[in-house]
Design goal:
Keywords: Aminoacyl-tRNA synthetase, ATP-binding, Cytoplasm, Ligase, Nucleotide-binding, Protein biosynthesis. The protein is an alpha+beta fold and 429 residues long. It has helices at residues 54-62, 110-115, 117-120, 124-146, 185-195, 231-252, 254-259, 264-268, 279-288, 301-308, 363-372, 377-388, 401-409, and strands spanning 15-28, 31-37, 42-48, 68-77, 85-96, 150-151, 157-158, 170-173, 176-180, 197-205, 218-227, 276-278, 315-318, 331-332, 335-339, 341-346, 351-358, 394-400. Strand 4 and strand 5 (85-96) form a beta hairpin.
């Protein structure tokens, strides 16, 4: 019977065949221990010399790392194993001997591993990160589908910027200028006017020459937009969404969190509601803590970390100054110097994982913003039309997938949270 490592528990005391690679091995005289992986998980294969052919035992002792094979044996219960099972090997059918595999069990430098990212993905830690990334994506779809959202796919090639910045990748679109999208938000607002509650999930691109542990050039965003929803309702949706994702990972990725040695006690506490602090109060707090920052300045990583350390959950920072936020954010009803927005800051120094706001729904005010930001009416007329034909209060936000993966996994750098990261000086592999 052919099966996978993930399904091994369903075949206890049965003889099965698994297609696998040899991740590592060790031997002790007349017993060889094979660390096998098949992409669905890891299992130990035990080869006892007295119970197998001479050829099988020789292969168990001599096969090099990452050789591919079919392994036939009996699934047995083993309480010492992280999975609870091991494979009593009876036969090995080699597909290929992989000689001189470059990533050995010894320590390697980050640049070396990044040069061999196509192989590094096979390691136990990287496998765990990718499985958790997948669970975050799966539970995201589940959450929004369960809450009446429709998935809409905005374009990747656009004729203008979503946020009016210049950090865009330029390309030619036949005889026109085009850019790789830095956000699908404006298009999602149009979709919300048609479908009420929508979300997108796709790649975005920022041509920022940043080398921090929180930044990628190409990354993935989840961007919901909701018609007839105000800022406060959006915040409640955001905290419920993040809580749902974290709890889904805790329920479905126990082995992966263990492989990463993640302290799950901090994740178990991630349940809505989340604390909130205004930008004004955040500035006062930082100044009392000795940070040199004035009202009107944006927060950097040290500021966000200092604020987050005061809480054991993600924290919303609300009502930022209008001048440091995007043109489409709705002004606060009681103040014209701040907008109805919030950034969600993750604990443990992982920084902002969500940025969101209530959007301007007044046509004349949006025209004013166009003028202030020197935006082209030709390029943005369609966006203005949304306020001209049946405008309604609406809100939205964007969650950065890779930062969220880094936080939930407890890993330092976002380069390990995406299969093939695009960094300032890395376009290979």
């Amino acid at each position: 019977m052919k099966t996978t490592i993930a399904e091994a528990g369903k075949h206890t005391n049965q003889t099965v065949t698994i297609g696998a690679w040899l991740a590592n091995k060790r031997s002790s005289g007349k017993i060889a221990f094979l660390q096998l992986r098949d992409g669905t998980g890891f299992i130990q294969g035990v080869v006892v010399k007295a119970e197998v052919s001479e050829k099988t035992f020789r292969l168990a002792k001599e096969l090099p790392q990452e050789s591919s094979m079919y392994v036939t044996g009996t699934i047995t219960v083993d309480d010492r194993s992280p999975t609870g099972y091991e494979l009593a090997v009876q036969e090995i059918d080699v597909i290929q001997e992989a000689n001189d595999y470059p990533i050995t069990p010894k320590e390697h430098g980050t640049e070396f591993l990044m040069d061999h990212r196509h192989l590094w993905l096979r390691s136990k830690k990287q496998h765990a990160i990718m499985k958790i990334r997948n669970e975050i994506i799966r539970s995201t779809y589940e959450f929004f589908n369960n809450n009446g959202f429709v998935k809409v796919d905005p374009p990747i090639l656009t004729g203008s910027s979503a946020e009016g910045t210049t950090n865009l990748f330029h390309t030619k679109y036949f005889d026109e200028d085009a850019y790789l999208s830095q956000s699908g938000q404006l298009y999602m607002e149009a979709a919300a006017m048609a479908l009420n509650k929508v979300f997108s999930f796709g790649p975005t691109f920022r041509a920022e020459k940043s080398k921090t542990r929180r930044h990628l050039i190409e990354f993935w965003m989840i961007e919901p937009e909701m018609a007839f929803m105000d800022h406060e309702e959006s915040l409640e949706l955001q905290e419920n969404y993040v809580s749902y994702v974290v709890q889904s990972v805790l329920s479905n990725c126990k082995l992966e969190l263990t492989a990463l040695e993640r302290d799950i006690s901090v994740l178990e506490n991630i349940k809505a509601p989340f604390p909130r602090i205004t930008y004004d109060d955040a500035i006062t707090f930082l100044q009392k803590e000795g940070y040199e920052i004035d009202w009107g300045e944006d927060f950097g990583a040290p500021h966000e970390t200092a604020i987050a350390e005061s809480y054991n959950k993600p924290v919303f920072i609300t009502n930022y100054p209008k001048d440091i936020k995007a043109f489409y954010m709705k002004p606060h009803p009681e103040r014209d110097d701040v907008v109805l927005c919030a950034d969600l800051i993750a604990p443990e120094g992982y920084g902002e994982i969500i940025g969101g706001s209530q959007r301007i729904d007044d046509e004349e005010l949006l025209k004013q913003r166009y003028d202030e930001h020197q935006l082209s009416y030709d390029a943005y007329q369609w966006y203005l039309d949304l306020r001209k034909y049946g405008t309604v209060p609406h809100s939205g936000f964007g969650l950065g997938l890779e930062r969220t993966v880094a936080w939930i996994c407890g890993i330092e750098h976002v380069r390990e949270t995406i299969p093939f990261p695009r960094l300032l000086n890395r376009l290979y592999p």
